Every structure is written in structure tokens, then in C-alpha cells.
Amino acid sequence: MSFDFDATVVGAGAVGLACGRALAKRGLTVLVLEKEPHIGQGVSSRNSEVIHGGLYYPTGSLKAKFCVEGRRALYAFLDSHKVDYRKCGKLVVATEEAEVERIEAIFQQASANGVEGLEHLTGAQARAMEPGLNAHAAILSPESGLFASHDYMLALQGEIEDAGGSVVLSTPFERAKALPGGGFTITAGGEGGATLTSGLLVTAPGLGAQDVAARIEGYPADRIPKGHFGKGVYFRLIGKAPFERLIYPPPIPGALGTHYRKDLGGQAVFGPDLVYVETEDYSVDPAKAAEFEHYIRRFWPGLPEGGLTPDYAGIRPKLHGKGEPQPDFQLRGRDDHGLDGLVALFGIESPGLTSSLAIGEAVVGMLHND
After folding, report:
1. Whole-number Å distance between alpha carbons of 176 and 283
2. Which of 109, 134, 154, 309 has a 20 to 30 A CA-CA distance from 174?
């Protein structure tokens, strides 16, 4: 049967574009649908732009596997496309004796995950690297870094289009229906939208994952995992950035916690925290500065009084609520939902940006196994 496109991807964030690129690399004609007027306007534009080493995730999980594989592939991709990045390294810091056991567990987890170059540091060694840091002990992860995530997404879009594919903006996905002989009819574009046919379908719309799955005829409602909005806000430092490396305290329940980075523009940014919300509210309450100051002074006692200014907020597509264990990425194929030629992604939060190239390759592998 002839289709308008070999494959359609819903969502032009980092993961959707990486899926589109992986499909286009296989010689398929690819369409990427994006509801916003620009690529990467959702989860992909409201994060820390950190390249994660792969330290924290349970060994054997998709997060651990894709983070390490994706990070290795990402540095090579950034080099080949001349996308700006800085492999600055990360210090995971125990600010007191009681936290040493927690960071040692992270070291063991990271080693089991195949993370390269890890080092134990004494407090004195950590302070010699980053004067002004309060550190009882630390772990150095030299593979961690920062990158220009939007330039990365533009490069992914360029590869899709160079291969003859299309990234279509301001075109929301409306619905899809499986065809009897394979493939899908897809309607997109809002009121009076266009209908097209596609042999394969990948849904990677971030916060909209549950809604999009519910709009696919025949997708079992009981196989759509419940979603939660995890909001995190960021504050920027007024003044000179105090540290060169990423600084991370031990993780908080459900997230990695409020950390420090010196962004590619040379400014210091702290965040995110984690609060569960019901709607996509991207406001930043200036009153939260006091809470941030108290937390940051655990690892940077020299933070000036009143030195923080509100910056931005992001919302992460979480599959767990407050107090619940943090689940793995969910890549749902035919064995889960019963529809040939469809892979639906759920809960692609951190480290999804770092993992994006590896996720794209895994999605192609799942579709080929169909």
C-alpha cells in the first residue's frame, strides 16, 4: 500500500526530532507534526541544558542505558554539527558527613551504569577545584556538561529536511486511526485540518503524551499511564558565577534537586525545584528566592543576600505523583497496545534530552521488529 509518508512523528521537541532523524536515516520519508509555531517550545526549551553522565538511574533501566548511550552519541553529534557545548564536569557534593553514604551509593550506581572517569574527592580536593564550595566529600563526573539545546534541535531538523522529510509547525495532531492493511490515517491542523496516511506513527509530544494516545482510535484506555505535571523554577544569580563545574547536592525524592550551572553565556543559574501542578503555569514566584537561598547556602555559603532573581520555569511529564517511586521511561509498542506500526512515548523527562539520540534509535528498532 502506498502512503503519503513512511513515518509520522508527533512532537518536534528534542526526542521527537531525534526519532524523526533516526527514521530519515533509514531512508524513510518522515513528517514531524508540531502544534507550536516553533520547534522545541515545550519541555525541550525549559530545562537545564545539562548533558547528564548517567549517574543516578537504576542499572538496567532505560534511563540508565539511554542516558549513557545518548550522551556518547550526543557529544559526537555536537562536534560534527558544530553545536556549542562545554564539557565542564559535575561535582556531586556531600555538604556534611551524613550525606557521604548517599553520594557513595551514587558512585556505585554510576560505575555499574558504565559511566566513565568517575573520581572520589575529599572535601579539600573539591574545594581546591571550586573555591567557595562547602564540601565534606564529592564525586567528580568529568563526562557531564552543558550544550545549546535549541541549536541541537535545529541540527536535527536540518538532517530530517536534508533527507527529504518535513517538520510542519502550528499543526496540532487531532486523531489517528489504524488502517486494515497496516498504516494509519492521521488528521492534523486544528479546525478543518488535513488528513494524510502514514505507514508508521511515533508519538513524542511530551506533556501531551496521554492526550495524544487517547486520540488514537483503538488505543486501550487502560494502557495509557496516568500523567502528572512536575513544575520546577529557576533563579539566576546577579553577579559573577562562583563555580566552573556543575554542582549537584544529593537528589531529592522524585528528581535530581536544585543544582548549579554556569550557562554557556557565563551566568549562574540555580534550579529546578519540584512542585506538582494541575495546569501548564510557567510563572515564577519571586518569594521563592528565600527558599532557594536557604538550600543553595548548604553548598555555597557565600551566596550574597538578595543575589537571586527569578528566571524561568519548566514542567516535566512525570508518571509518578508526590511520594511515589520514580518510574522508567515508557516506550510502548505493539506488545503493549496491540497496534502495529505505533510507538508511543510516555514520561520522557530528565534525562530525556541527553538520551534523545538513543531513544530515537530504540524507537526505530521497535518499529522494525514489528
Report:
1. 34
2. 154
Of the chain, the end-to-end C-alpha distance in Å amounts to 17
Q: How far is CA 45 from CA 12, 213, 331, in A?
A: 11, 23, 22
Q: How far apart are CA 16 and CA 32, in angstroms?
A: 8
Grouping H, G, I as helix, E, B as strand and the rest as coil, residue 73 is: helix
pLDDT band at 254 (very low <50, low <70, confident <90, very high): low
How far is CA 76 from its chain centroid? 18
Q: For residues 33 and 189, what is the distance between their CA atoms, to the nearest angstrom?
A: 9
Helices (H), the chain: 14-25, 62-81, 100-112, 123-129, 149-162, 209-214, 289-296, 334-337, 352-369
Q: Work out the number of other CB atoms within 10 angstroms of the CB of residue 111.
A: 13
Cell numbers placing 50: 545539562
Q: At what angle do helices 149-162 and 14-25 cross, to 10 degrees?
A: 30
Residues 6+ apart with CB under 8 A from 358: 65, 66, 67, 69, 70, 73
What letter represents residue 300's amino acid?
A: W
**Triad 273, 276, 282: Cα angle to 5°:** 70
Task: State the Cα–Cα distance between residues 332 and 366, nearest whole angstrom.
Answer: 9
Interacting residues of 365 by C-beta distance below 8 A, sequence separation 6+: none
DSSP state of 54: S
Q: Which helix (H) or strand (E) holds 232?
A: strand 228-237
Mean pLDDT score of the chain, rounded to an integer?
Answer: 96
d(CA 229, CA 366): 27
Across the strands, what pairs with 236? 269, 309
Q: pLDDT tens digits for 83-102?
A: 999 999 999 999 999 999 99
Residue 115 is which amino acid?
V
pTM above 0.85, yes or no: yes
Is residue 168 within 8 A of residue 34, CB to CB? The reply is yes
Burial (CB count within 10 angstroms: exposed 0-12, middle 13-18, buried 19+), residue 164:
exposed
Render 135-155 in DSSP notation, one character per residue. Answer: -SEEEEETT-EEE-HHHHHHH
Q: How far is CA 226 from CA 88, 331, 336, in A?
A: 37, 14, 15
